[in-house]
Structure formats: structure tokens, C-alpha cells
Design a protein that fits this description.
Blueprint: H1 4-15, E1 27-29, H2 33-38, E2 41-51, E3 59-61, E4 64-66, E5 70-77, E6 82-83, E7 86-88, H3 91-94, H4 100-119, E8 128-135, E9 142-150, H5 153-160, E10 171-176, H6 189-192, H7 201-212, H8 217-235, H9 239-247
Parallel strand pairs: 2-9
Antiparallel strand pairs: 1-8, 2-5, 2-7, 3-4, 5-6, 5-10, 8-9
Bound molecules: inosine-5'-diphosphate.
Length: 250
């Protein structure tokens, strides 16, 4: 018989995203399948990304060249917040399979179904598992599972230029993530991070950027710190709370 704990350990150790220990978050990682099984509801989301093989001629703007060779796609949701395609995996509400590989398979199917519903694309893709987490102290309520999938540059172009149009009322727009910081240290990724994000989408985004090495830890950390400062200036109050309130919709 297959040892599920071992499979999970292997899955998570080979695929888990780098943590951002410096980022305040109210979500807790979960690598324990027994605990995952206890959650009442499961949601799965997927980060779609692509990388142009040939160096693209950079887009000159103002004082810098914007290096957008790597593209990450996010959605603007019906509620105005940014998030990734995905949603609740209803099949897991009534019964969670006893084996982790089967569980992952159902999550993957769920995320592909949502991808198709929201973007009219991706029914037959196989996104790779990244990590799971739950809101602090609510491990029995909801588990959020995260996947990544690499698109070809032409698939990305078709999606982000709107050739593939969302059929879902829940999506009001698509956006590429600015993976750079401009010379003023504010525009680009730091400004993008001051938007509102659904669930723990901002953490999922930053962890995948680190996992894939799209940006260095120093760059990501700096962008996050600037985002905190901008948020604080806008609203005053406690920085940590504010950032969490942006990321904590559950
Ligand atoms: O991109 C995301 N990353 C992490 N959590 C998210 C994201 N988008 C939504 N959520 C959270 O996941 C859960 C499912 O929401 P979603 O709107 O995706 O599901 P639905 O489309 O099935 O209604 C909610 O608790 C929501 O806060």
C-alpha cells in the first residue's frame, strides 16, 4: 500500500514555494494530509505564466527598459480585487479520498474546470501543485491549494490580448503582473502590490516569483516594503493589519 504521508512529503518538498518569512500574513502552510482531509471546503487556484525564449526587445518607458520576458497572469475579479483563476472544489465537500495522489488529482481537475469556466481555456492542462495553506486558526474550515502552469508565449498572448475571452461573470479583466521596479522605486511591482487581493493571492504570487527565481529575494522584499509604506501613507493605522486586511477576505 502506498504511504500517503511520504507521497505528500515528496510532493511538498519538491514543489513547495519559498516562504516569505518577512511578509506579515494570516495564513498558515499545511503539509499534513490528515489535517487537509478535515477541512470542510477546499479551494484551488492556478498561476499561469510564460517566458519568451528569445530575448524580447524591451519596452522603453520613461527612464528604464521594462524587462517583461516573463509574464504572470492575474484576473480582476467581480469584486474589484485581484486573484488567480480557480475556485471551490465542490467534489471534495462531500468526500475526500483517502490517498493524497487521488486528492491532488481531484484538486487538479477542479482547478482545470474553473480555468475553463473563467477563461474558456485549459480543460486538458495539468498544473503542478505548489502548496496548501489555511487561514490561521481555521484549518478545519477551508484549505487553499495552489498550482502553477506554464503557457507557451503564444497561448499567453492569445489570453492576455483577449482572443480568449472569459465566459464568466466573475472575471471583469485580465492583467499581467509588472515584474520590475522602476527607477523611482515605487512604480511597477510595489504599486501593483498595493491593490486588493482575494484570499492569500498576494502571498501566492510572491512565493511563486521566488520559487521560480523570476526576481531575487532582495527585489521582492524591497517591493513589498515599499507597498507597505504606500498603504500606510494612504490609510494610516497599523501597517500589518492593513496589509492583512487587503489579503484576508475569507
Ligand atoms: O487567487 C486567489 N488566491 C487565494 N485565494 C483566493 C483567490 N481567489 C479567491 N480566493 C479565496 O478562495 C475562496 C474561493 O473563492 P473563489 O471566488 O475563487 O471561488 P468561486 O469562484 O468558486 O466562488 C474564497 O474563500 C476566496 O477568498
Amino acid at each position: 500500500m502506498m504511504d500517503n504521508t511520504k507521497v505528500l512529503e515528496e510532493e511538498t518538498s519538491s514543489t513547495s514555494a519559498h516562504k516569505c518569512p518577512w511578509m506579515p500574513t494570516s495564513y498558515v502552510d499545511c503539509t499534513d494530509f490528515e489535517l487537509m482531509k478535515k477541512a470542510k471546503i477546499h479551494a484551488a487556484h492556478v498561476l499561469l505564466w510564460s517566458r519568451d525564449e528569445k530575448p524580447v526587445s524591451p519596452y522603453h518607458y520613461d527612464d528604464i527598459e521594462l524587462p517583461m520576458q516573463t509574464k504572470i497572469l492575474m484576473q480582476v475579479r467581480f469584486d474589484g480585487s485581484f486573484g488567480f483563476p480557480g475556485g471551490f472544489v465542490d467534489e471534495l465537500e462531500s468526500k475526500v479520498p483517502s490517498s493524497f495522489p487521488k486528492f491532488l488529482e481531484l484538486l487538479q481537475q477542479g482547478v482545470c474546470r474553473e480555468l475553463f469556466e473563467e477563461m474558456g481555456f485549459g480543460r486538458d492542462t495539468s498544473p503542478s501543485y505548489v502548496y496548501s495553506c489555511h487561514p490561521a486558526g481555521r484549518e478545519k474550515d477551508v484549505m487553499l491549494h495552489f498550482f502553477m502552469f506554464q503557457l507557451t508565449p503564444s497561448q499567453m498572448k492569445a489570453i492576455s490580448w483577449g482572443s480568449i475571452i472569459s465566459t464568466s461573470d466573475e472575471v471583469v479583466g485580465l492583467s499581467l503582473v509588472p515584474l520590475y521596479t522602476m527607477k523611482d522605486g515605487i512604480r511597477g511591482l510595489p504599486t501593483f502590490l498595493t491593490n486588493s487581493f482575494a484570499g492569500n493571492a498576494v502571498e501566492q504570487l510572491l512565493r511563486c516569483i521566488l520559487k521560480q527565481g523570476f526576481l531575487s529575494e532582495v527585489e521582492v522584499r524591497k517591493a513589498t516594503e515599499v507597498a507597505f509604506k504606500i498603504l500606510k501613507k494612504r490609510g494610516g493605522g497599523d501597517l500589518k493589519f492593513e496589509f492583512q486586511s487587503h489579503t484576508h477576505i475569507l
